[in-house]
Write a structure and sequence with these properties.
The structure holds 2 protein chains of 2 kinds.
Chain A: E1 2-8, H1 13-23, E2 29-35, E3 42-46, E4 49-53, E5 56-65, H2 70-81, E6 89-95, H3 108-111
Helix pairs in contact in A: 1-2
Chain B: H1 2-14, H2 37-65, H3 71-98, H4 104-107, E1 126-127, E2 130-131, H5 132-149, H6 160-183, H7 187-191, H8 199-217, H9 233-251, H10 260-287, H11 293-307, H12 316-341, H13 349-367, H14 388-416, H15 423-428, H16 430-435
Antiparallel strand pairs in B: 1-2
Classes of the chains: A alpha+beta, B mainly alpha.
């Protein structure tokens, strides 16, 4: 099993969610986050006063999947979250040791 | 006494020319003024309108523009100033500003002390065609808003105690003498400077003090790197709108009558304000690509400020031009000049009130039309270019006296109580640290 953590542009969430549902992904967790990548934010001027925008608003999606689903999920997120502009985000994949559904006590593949 | 109070009645409009008959529509006998119920009714209304400008108008205008952690501290400055300055005006402000000094030479610069605590005031005391009690409270509302305006430049970092000391001393030492120069029969009135409702006395004066104060206090911590955008511009829009409406009392009320002069001043106020809001909006749209809400309301306030000395002297075309010019000049001052010179005039008290007041004071000499008010002959329509002389002198005099005086007052307060909050208070927020409250949890 794998945990996929994707940082995406907020306006891309709906497209990503729809396509992941179509793939048969049963659930995901979404968090509003702020961060920066290679372009390190930028500066803006409001009413004559400059300020640094070091952290830009993004969404973090977390999806736990069976290992065989991994490539399909990565392809889907990449395709749907991509604009081609800087700041499209990243996907992190980590191994997942155990999953438990709290209500029933089912584990691992059955709990996904 | 009669002469003096008569002069005051018309004096605002006549800028001390002493030509009483010029107040449009005023039909009182020169040596025996009688109460006019129409004038009195309008001045009662105007007084309430001008108070509305400070509370809640200015409190909301400024309160919406600061960051969430400093909203109550900002509102407290407007409200606290209203309470303190009302009392000080009764104690000593009114007499210094509006009563004659026994010494003719001292009277050029400051009034006398006969009216300390308003002791000689009686129920039937008259000021022109209205009760003197009404004139006192009308002028009190001006004495409240002028120092309160300065808060915009020092937002987010000044101690509340230091602010109260400052506005109190500033009222007595700066505002009262300058009001006396122009409206109380002092030397600028003698020069023939035109200032209908306080372009120099109120706005340039407060704006200059704001510039000096923001330089003396220094920039806000994080200025130039942190985002200091307004936390709630809706509050600022409500505040600016209350300022706009209240300003009818400020400008049309400064006719101190309820006749033609007041009505024309109201029309000029509306035209100039709208024109300046449009001018700022368009300038910002062209230069910065987006017409910000803060820009629109700032433009409106710039127009209100610039028409203040001119309302009651100019015709509708003059008002239109003053508004358009003020909107663009104040936009440049608040956005470009501030950045170029590097001072942190947090809410643009200098950029809008100081610059707008100076622009208005000078343009009054350009656009004053003697067909609107025979006391004011300007350059463009009446060919009286000489009027620009007293206008420039009044701007320079207010700038220099207020600038130096404000600097000294601030330095003394800094020595005794300290001007600025400690760094951790500034970072954590003034609301919780100075007032023990927060605006929302």
């Amino acid at each position: 099993m794998k945990l996929i953590t994707a940082i995406i542009k907020p306006f891309k969430l709906d497209e990503v969610r729809e396509q992941l549902s179509a793939l048969g992904i049963q659930g995901m967790t979404v968090t509003e986050v702020k961060g920066y990548g290679r372009q390190k934010g930028h500066t803006e001027i409001y009413r004559g006063a400059e300020y640094a925008v070091s952290f830009l608003p993004k969404l973090k999606i977390e999806v736990a999947v069976k290992s065989e689903m991994l490539d399909a999920v990565i392809d889907t997120v990449t395709a749907k979250a991509k604009t081609g502009q800087i700041g499209d985000g990243k996907i992190f994949v980590t191994p997942l040791e155990q999953v438990v559904r709290i209500r029933t006590g089912e584990t691992d593949g059955d709990a996904l | 006494m009669n002469m003096q109070s008569l002069k005051k009645a018309g004096g605002t409009a006549l800028a001390g020319l002493g030509l009483l008959a010029l107040t449009a529509g005023a039909a009182f006998a020169q040596d025996a003024p009688k109460l006019d119920s129409g004038d009195t009714a309008w001045m009662l209304t105007s007084t309430a309108l001008v108070l509305l400008m400070t509370i809640p108008g200015l409190a909301l205008f400024y309160g919406g523009m600061v960051r969430k952690k400093n909203v109550l501290a900002t509102v407290a400055q407007s409200f606290g100033a209203t309470a303190l300055l009302s009392v000080l005006w009764m104690v000593v402000g009114y007499t210094l500003a509006f009563k004659a000094n026994a010494s003719e030479s001292v009277n050029q610069f400051v009034g006398g002390l006969d009216y300390i605590f308003l002791k000689p005031l009686t129920l039937e005391s008259l000021s022109g065609t209205i009760p003197e009690s009404l004139f006192i409270v009308f002028q009190m509302t001006f004495a409240i808003i002028t120092p309160a305006l300065i808060a915009g430049a020092v937002a987010d970092r000044m101690k509340f105690s230091a602010f109260l000391w400052f506005v109190g001393l500033w009222l007595v030492l700066i505002y009262a003498p300058i009001a006396h120069w122009v409206w109380g029969g002092g030397w600028l009135a003698g020069l023939g400077a035109l200032d209908f409702a306080g372009g120099a006395v109120v706005h340039l004066n407060a704006g200059t003090a704001a510039l000096v104060a923001c330089i003396v206090l220094g920039k806000r911590r994080g200025y130039g790197t942190e985002n200091m955008s307004p936390h709630n511009l809706v509050l600022s829009v409500i505040g600016a709108s209350l300022l706009w409406v209240g300003w009818f009392g400020f400008n049309a009320g400064s006719a101190v009558t309820s006749g033609f002069n007041a009505a024309m001043a109201m029309l000029a106020t509306q035209i100039a304000t709208a024109a300046a809001a449009l001018a700022w909006m368009v300038a910002e749209w062209v230069i910065a690509k987006k017409p910000s809400v803060l820009g629109m309301i700032s433009g409106a306030v710039a127009g209100l400020v610039a028409i203040t000395p001119a309302a009651g002297f100019v015709d509708p075309m003059g008002a239109l031009f003053i508004g358009l010019i003020a909107g663009i000049v104040c936009y440049i001052a608040a956005v470009w000049l501030k950045r170029a010179l590097g001072y942190d005039d947090s809410l643009d008290a200098w950029g809008v009130h100081g610059v707008g007041g100076a622009v208005g004071a000078i343009l009054t000499g350009v656009f004053a039309n003697s067909a609107i008010n025979s006391a004011g002959k300007g350059w463009l329509i009446d060919g009286n270019i000489a009027q620009l002389g007293p206008q420039f002198i009044s701007v320079a005099a207010v700038f220099v006296y207020c600038g130096i005086g404000t600097f000294i007052i601030l330095k003394v307060i800094d020595l005794i109580v300290g001007l600025r909050v400690p760094a951790e208070v500034e970072v954590e927020g003034l609301d919780i640290n100075l007032h023990g409250e927060t605006v929302h949890d």
